[in-house]
Specification:
With 238 residues, the protein is an alpha+beta fold. The protein is 29% helix and 21% strand.
Length: 238
Amino acid sequence: MSKLQQPEVAPPVVDRAAFDEALATQVRDEKELTRHGDRVSAARRRLPMVQVEDYEFQGSDGPVRLSELFDGRYLLLVQNVMFAPDWDDGCPSCTWAVDNLPANTGRLDDEGIAFAMVSQAPIEKLERWRELRGWPHRWVSSGATSYHDDWGWTLHHDDYDGPVPGYSYYLLRDGVPYLTYATGSRGTEAILPVAHIMDRTAYGRQQDWEDSPEGWPQYPPTADSGAPCQSVNRLLTY
């Protein structure tokens, strides 16, 4: 059975009054979660920042520095896409994440936020994958730099040696780039709308780590369902 087939099981049917009461309880808890999220965001805005080397990446038109990725703006979001130098294709999970980006990324421009993707693979491989996926986003190669190792975007472990997914948030001050925040593993879900839409359906993501009612359809997380690649998944905090 696949997620495209309707499950046999379903939530219990109740009258309108019972449903409204249950929903009100759920909304109360979600409002508290929202308020807690506000407190976490307030703390995030009070984080310090650290200066970052102005790395020289390789872009489709030649060398491009980290500071140039701001493209005239003062804020920059970098998606660290898993694409190792010896891979032929990009990570399916990271590909799913890029596909989750706003259909109109110009909305980020309106907020003074530039967006770019960084991977270790040669620029020729990145451009091929970008064109295959139909992405308009800027993608640069860090392969000739120490960027990935310097900032923890590669994992060196007995079971896995390679890139890991995540996002880096930068601020440009007087031409100098600073890292203000970074997140990986499930922290990446904050900007994955499809995952949040799935969470709010009757069956959730249908993944076997979820706490769901007995008999609910559940499957092992797969890369194309937004889960980190399985080779990395067991080594990261899920």
